[in-house]
Amino acid sequence: MKKYVDQGKNDTRSGFGAGMTELGRTNPKVVALCADLIGSLKIQQFIDENPDRFFQIGIAEANMMGIAAGLTIGGKIPFTGTFANFSTGRVYDQIRQSIAYSGKNVKICASHAGITLGEDGATHQILEDIGLMKMLPGMVVINPCDYNQTKAATIAIADYEGPVYLRFGRPKVANFTPVDQKFEIGKAVMLNEGTDVTIVATGHLVWEALQAAEALETQGVSAEVINIHTIKPLDDEAILKSVKKTGCIVTTEEHNYLGGLGESISGLLATQHPTPQEFVATQDTFGESGTPAQLMEKYGLNNKAIEKAVLKVLKRK
Amino acid sequence: MKKYVDQGKNDTRSGFGAGMTELGRTNPKVVALCADLIGSLKIQQFIDENPDRFFQIGIAEANMMGIAAGLTIGGKIPFTGTFANFSTGRVYDQIRQSIAYSGKNVKICASHAGITLGEDGATHQILEDIGLMKMLPGMVVINPCDYNQTKAATIAIADYEGPVYLRFGRPKVANFTPVDQKFEIGKAVMLNEGTDVTIVATGHLVWEALQAAEALETQGVSAEVINIHTIKPLDDEAILKSVKKTGCIVTTEEHNYLGGLGESISGLLATQHPTPQEFVATQDTFGESGTPAQLMEKYGLNNKAIEKAVLKVLKRK
Amino acid sequence: MYTQKIAITFENHKQNVQKMAKIEEIQDIVVQTRRDILRMVHKVNSGHPGGSLGCTEFLVTLYNELMDLNDGFDMDGIGEDLFFLSNGHISPVFYSVLARKGYFDVDELNTFRLIDSRLQGHPTTHEGLPGVRIASGSLGQGMSVAIGAAQAKKLNNDPKLVYSLHGDGELQEGQNWEAIMYASGKKVDNLIATIDLNGQQIDGSTDTVLPMGDLKAKFEAFDWEVLEIKEGNDVQAILNGMQEAKNKTGKGKPVCVLLHTVMGNGVDFMMHTHAWHGKAPSDEQLATALEQNAETLGDY
Amino acid sequence: MYTQKIAITFENHKQNVQKMAKIEEIQDIVVQTRRDILRMVHKVNSGHPGGSLGCTEFLVTLYNELMDLNDGFDMDGIGEDLFFLSNGHISPVFYSVLARKGYFDVDELNTFRLIDSRLQGHPTTHEGLPGVRIASGSLGQGMSVAIGAAQAKKLNNDPKLVYSLHGDGELQEGQNWEAIMYASGKKVDNLIATIDLNGQQIDGSTDTVLPMGDLKAKFEAFDWEVLEIKEGNDVQAILNGMQEAKNKTGKGKPVCVLLHTVMGNGVDFMMHTHAWHGKAPSDEQLATALEQNAETLGDY
Ligand SMILES: Cc1ncc(C[n+]2csc(CCOP(=O)(O)OP(=O)(O)O)c2C)c(N)n1
Ligand SMILES: Cc1ncc(C[n+]2csc(CCOP(=O)(O)OP(=O)(O)O)c2C)c(N)n1
Ligand SMILES: [Mg+2]
Ligand SMILES: [Mg+2]
């Protein structure tokens, strides 16, 4: 299989910060909002370079969403920044009415998604945000896999007109996608062609899927690996094409198996092409404190878990 | 097939009100909270009979959820009441941390769920609440089908220790389940045995499913109809047993097809027994103003839509 | 859907050419608007007449005399004053005022709350109704939106103002207090937020549901400029009060207007009670109510 | 999991037999608690020392002198005073105070923020840690919970009090203002809510992030009894102030204590700056900090 090289570990939130810096220089309509988490969101440079286009909201996420909606009236493109939990669950109804239903051009940018934020524990580790956002009509839901892709996604969504949820994380992870990639919303990225099983991964789990595929290759299993950076709109075609070839699928995400990408794919396949599927996701539990690696191990979210799931689903073909 | 008789149309929220009246008389630990919607929730009688055990919170749903959590400390069993949107999306993070993660014995009771609340329109018509609540670890999610079942469910959840989401509606619908039924959380109800197709329905759609099954019978199609009043924990066994017999399934709910009961079932089947499935649910759109009947027709949520879905899924067997 | 932009230019209404001179002319629109409200909610047997009637004088005066409006509508509203309705349930008065101002045909009021209508139960941008810039209905969100729009005006060097309207019961929602704290903290002084102080909400008076104490003291403690209009159903009082409010903008503080209104104003049996918050009149009640408000500009 | 009830009885601590008499004894616990905080966050290189150190005198005094506590722990806490930590990020001070009071073994402080620990990054009931009655961490939720517990006490005819602690930045969350309005509106007068007025939050001082104006005026405008403790890191001042606060309970109003504290108190280089809100000291910094706070009761 194709070898992917880690260009040096980095956090996806820094990719977001770099994207914001670029947008600050290239798109005068872009404004940033933050709810007392500038450092965590890595937007200090944007602020330094564009102090007038930054709004410090304080610890008031609901207000932030409403202000963002209001800023679109007058032609601004607001990017809101806080942790994923406070970007979604805390403000679901505000997003629903003032942004999604109102069709406002707001980019909801969420750091510290998933369990890998680590030590802060369950109150901060949202494992439901993909589900929350995907249920909103008209919302685009994006979860890029590494620094480079997060930067590219950040820049790309400014050119898309409409509400977007962009999810990224805290830990430093492998950075392996091209520096100068073009990010196409809704277009799955084929990372490795294979014939025995389809692995569909999103976010931090994409690198893990590639590791699993490598390990599987040594066991004679040819795994197709697809990076679904856009969970909504889902690239139905890419997924269907792949499972029609491989006949089975493993989906993996840093999210509860209930309501996430995996279930979206189950729903798609159930109506189009019923296929054995295994979920590599959290099993309807809250997270806890720990290091990212410990947590990914304990909650079954790494390449070993993916490998195991592949071997299981292969038996069910 | 077995004939079900409408004992007289009634609203499920009145079933909730009746259940609360009974609980008021039988269980001194039960307290009720409301966010300025007493009349809509039909709890005036509970209040009249137990004024000390009622808390009028005003229009502050987040505060209501926190107060409910606090009331459990000291042994109370709080039932909160407001519209489904304001019971879930508005207060997701409060439920998440102060109730679900904290394991508090709060019953979140939500009226006006779905599109059938009618004229108030999309801002009030939540079609995502099942998904929101099912993603929370430890949350029980219940959507009874008629007045009698809602009353029974209301009474039953007081005896269950832990957080529960109870969803019911505004319009008067057929009341056809037994008056004195025992409500078993998590236990699907087999309404009609059949051999050709499984129809799994919840809430207002159960009656529609029965109508569809009757119509299908005249066309020689034997439909098994299951009432999934408890979406979480899901009665996996009942569903698997049925689809193993029938080989195909239609799921129906007053909810977005993304994230709801249908996807939970897709996920279950994908991992256990991949099966052709059709969704009768809203298609990722917001609702709108209209009469309940008009909306169910326009958004494809009635017996005709179920019948069509069955004929479609039968061809895919 | 989400990229669709509505931009219309009024054909028959060069509204800003001259402001209306006489109170009587405004009063005529007020009475006609009351009729519109009553007939709309009666027709579909749903909707919220109480708060709508209580705010009729205010909204009619705002749109016809106080606001600087462009001769057309687009979403951005650059170079004009903006209005946001936070308490979206009083959509009947909003729709009538917009229609009679020329944002859409008055005949469309016939479609209120019907299926496939642009006049949804609560105002929305989703169906592209000119005049509406944000959905409301879920309470408590409008002040934040108004602040955002006001801050966009500042960024755009647009000297025009942003107005908003909120229910008193609605102020029980905490998001308002986030917005109230922010607006003064960040000196959003091109915003005039008006509170419909009718003392009523759904389950009863605000005092029985959740006593809100002294709202003036609260806004002042949150460092707003506060101004009361004691006769909130009197057009002249509104004109005076709002002119004063305008004078207070641009001075470093957001401005709050406490508008004392009577719920159900203009229809004797609807006045002073929460009973008509969200209930439509019967045929006879409608007839009585319309008798008390004789046609002025012509029914839709 | 959800039905599991923890109920323990303290073995070694008949804590209420006699209250501590001397300020010095409290001060000893204070210093030891500071050491615990510093060592906990240092070990895992994460956690929130700044707010924890600022509230150490308060929490130590509260648990060891002010609260009436049962000789054991169960969730309902009937017949005892209750405490709720709303600003859950200052878990280190909470854990140390609970451990040293006997709720669990001090050795368990070693597990702070480690995997499989009961001492989560933010306090939780999920792992069954005695002394904790609600999860916190997502800010702004604790006052509502405290109100609910206070109202349960009233229903149970339990005359004991409910205490809560909140960050000043945390008050930017609107849910607090819902709770503040409710508590006075419904006369929840068995509640003493303390605000950690350190003037700091994550991105800087509260004044730079979002100026909050006069908090006393705000609480008073919301009809609370308000009391300031100007020397919030002085045990005697806390004792006096909180005694006064207790005296104000039961008189129809909720009581707010504005506790003026210094973030990072007791460690010179951590004081008066938001920089230590959520950062762990290096090895050398720890050594310096511990030098400034010599062992009193023995390290865990
Ligand atoms: C978030 C939210 N909670 C509850 C409701 C239901 N609701 C609609 S209007 C209303 C009362 C509003 O009172 P007020 O703002 O005083 O308006 P008025 O009755 O005076 O028109 C309530 C509780 C809602 N629309 N949104
Ligand atoms: C709802 C929510 N939003 C944001 C955060 C992130 N956060 C944690 S602590 C904090 C600052 C809190 O300031 P303050 O209450 O003054 O506490 P202090 O820094 O003084 O300890 C923030 C923004 C959070 N935990 N919860
Ligand atoms: Mg009112
Ligand atoms: Mg602080």
What does this structure look like?
The complex is a heterotetramer, with two copies of chain A (317 residues) and two copies of chain C (300 residues). Chain A has 317 residues and is an alpha/beta fold. Chain A has helices at residues 12-26, 38-41, 44-49, 61-72, 84-87, 92-101, 129-134, 147-159, 205-218, 236-246, 261-272, 292-298, 303-315, and strands at 10-11, 30-34, 54-56, 77-83, 107-111, 140-142, 164-167, 172-173, 189-192, 197-201, 223-227, 230-232, 249-256, 277-282. In chain A, helix 4 packs parallel to helix 6 and helix 9 crosses helix 13 (303-315). The relative contact order of chain A is 0.14. Chain C has one domain: Rossmann fold (3-Layer(aba) Sandwich). Chain C has ten helices and seven strands. Chain C is globular and about 50 Å long. The mean pLDDT of chain C is 95. Chains in contact: A-B, A-C, A-D, B-C, B-D, C-D. Chain A binds chain B through residues 85-86, 88-90, 92-93, 96-97, 101, 122-123, 127-128, 131-132, 134-137, 232, 256-259, 262-264, 266-267, 269-271, 274-279, 284-286, and chain B through 85-86, 88-90, 92-93, 96-97, 101, 122-123, 127-128, 131-132, 134-137, 232, 256-259, 262-264, 266-267, 269-271, 274-279, 284-286. Bound molecules: thiamine diphosphate (2 copies) and magnesium ion (2 copies). One thiamine diphosphate (TPP) sits between chains D (50-51, 87, 89-90, 137-140, 167-170, 196, 198, 200-202, 263, 277) and A (36-37, 59, 86, 90).
